[in-house]
């Protein structure tokens, strides 16, 4: 009996050590130590919790702590991540957002349910709720002035190339009509205070406007997110016919590079430092009095190193003005210096790394146009 157990444990370890099984099948996290005995995939602890909530599809066990019988190990050996992915991820639309372990719970859960429970990607040309170019429904939207979430009708149209929302269900004219190419969407459960919270941003007169929404159904809000990506993808395919699918995919919705509180001073650098919420959205650094403000109080363009932009730890010597946080950083632009302070050294280093990643990238022709607008505005 002991010999049989040793043989099974050895066989399990051999399957586990395969290169294909070194990352979680669902989120890509390294060194997964759980597996599904019914699907044959190796997964991380976090994804195993999602699998456990769909017991009709997946039975999960710890690779370290649970007992595996011979038949289960043979099933894992026959399948594994590569074989199972080839079945359940065979026909993922190019625009569909595949979350990683850094993404929020609702994205990862709906990705797992879409694959294994709803089997959305097993057949080519399958009609999906986010793929037909039109989506209409109710989302709970935060009021710009009163902060209350109220139900609003939203309409997304590929034919019109826009997203609209209406303050009343029977309204004929939308409150806003936003072109799809200026929209971004990113999940913000912590900021919004709802696990299904979605932040939609768009440019209005070259200024960023925020809309905060949620839906009670995780599936519905993720369907909206992927519907926006689908409409964007098809719009950009027409606008940039020679661009590859992957090039266009990289221009769809994006997560912010960094968000959090910093203190800032004014252009004279003698004013008191004020605490503000900052969002770095690629080359746009925006600051808000409150994280849920609809409009930024100001925006700073962050260009490239070859165009005279840089970031430095610390503040210039002799900096005046009262500040309560002592981990400073300075953004140098061709026109002026911007001074900020962070609460902790870890936050300071994170912000410096985020700015450096942007500054080290060459600017695109479109970004030169945005830089020119910022200079004209100032």
UniProtKB/TrEMBL annotation:
Residue ranges crossing the lipid bilayer per the database entry: none
Entry-linked CDD domains: ArfGap_ADAP, PH1_ADAP, PH2_ADAP
Subcellular location: Cytoplasm
GO MF entries: GTPase activator activity; phosphatidylinositol bisphosphate binding; phosphatidylinositol-3,4,5-trisphosphate binding; zinc ion binding
InterPro entries found in the cross-reference section: Arf-GAP_dual-PH_domain, ARFGAP/RecO, ArfGAP_dom, ArfGAP_dom_sf, PH-like_dom_sf, PH1_ADAP, PH2_ADAP, PH_domain
Gene Ontology, cellular component aspect: cytoplasm; plasma membrane
Major subcellular site: cytoplasm
Keywords: Cytoplasm, GTPase activation, Metal-binding, Repeat, Zinc, Zinc-finger
Domain PH residues, every copy: 132-233, 255-360
Residue span(s) of domain Arf-GAP: 6-129
Pfam families reported for this sequence: ArfGap (PF01412), PH (PF00169)
Source domain of life: Eukaryota
Classification via Gene3D superfamilies: Arf GTPase activating protein, Pleckstrin-homology domain (PH domain)/Phosphotyrosine-binding domain (PTB)
SMART domains per record: ArfGap, PH
Name listed for the protein in its UniProt record: Arf-GAP with dual PH domain-containing protein 1
């Amino acid at each position: 009996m002991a010999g049989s157990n040793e043989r099974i444990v050895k066989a399990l370890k051999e399957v586990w050590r395969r290169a294909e099984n070194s990352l979680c099948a669902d989120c890509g996290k390294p060194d997964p130590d759980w597996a599904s005995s019914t699907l044959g995939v190796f997964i991380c602890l976090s994804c195993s919790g999602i699998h456990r909530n769909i017991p009709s599809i997946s039975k999960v066990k710890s690779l370290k702590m649970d007992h595996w019988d011979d038949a289960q190990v043979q099933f894992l050996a026959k399948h594994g991540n590569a074989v199972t992915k080839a079945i359940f991820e065979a026909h993922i639309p190019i625009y569909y957002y595949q979350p990683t372990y850094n993404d929020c719970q609702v994205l990862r859960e709906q990705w797992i349910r879409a694959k294994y429970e709803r089997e959305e990607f097993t057949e080519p040309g399958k009609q999906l709720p986010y793929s037909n170019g039109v989506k209409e429904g109710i989302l709970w939207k935060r009021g710009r002035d009163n902060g209350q979430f109220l139900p609003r009708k939203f309409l997304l149209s590929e034919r019109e190339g826009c997203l609209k929302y209406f303050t009343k269900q029977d309204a004929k004219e939308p409150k806003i009509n936003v072109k799809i190419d200026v929209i971004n969407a990113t999940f913000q459960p912590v900021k919004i205070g709802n696990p299904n919270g979605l932040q939609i941003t768009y440019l209005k007169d070259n200024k960023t406007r925020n809309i905060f929404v949620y839906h009670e159904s995780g599936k519905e809000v993720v369907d909206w997110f992927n519907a926006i990506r689908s409409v964007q993808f098809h719009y950009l395919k027409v606008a940039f016919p020679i661009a590859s699918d992957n090039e266009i995919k990289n221009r769809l919705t994006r997560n912010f590079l960094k968000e959090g509180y910093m203190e800032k001073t004014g252009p004279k650098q003698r004013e008191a430092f004020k605490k503000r919420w900052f969002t770095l959205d690629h080359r746009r650094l925006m600051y808000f009095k409150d994280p849920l403000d609809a409009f930024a109080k100001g925006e700073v363009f962050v260009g490239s190193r070859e165009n005279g932009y840089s970031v430095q730890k610390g503040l210039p010597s002799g900096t005046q003005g009262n500040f309560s946080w002592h981990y400073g950083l300075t953004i140098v632009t061709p026109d002026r210096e911007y001074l900020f302070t962070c609460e902790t050294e870890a936050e300071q280093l994170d912000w410096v790394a985020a700015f450096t990643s942007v500054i080290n990238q060459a600017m695109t022709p479109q970004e030169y146009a945005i830089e020119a607008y910022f200079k004209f505005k100032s």
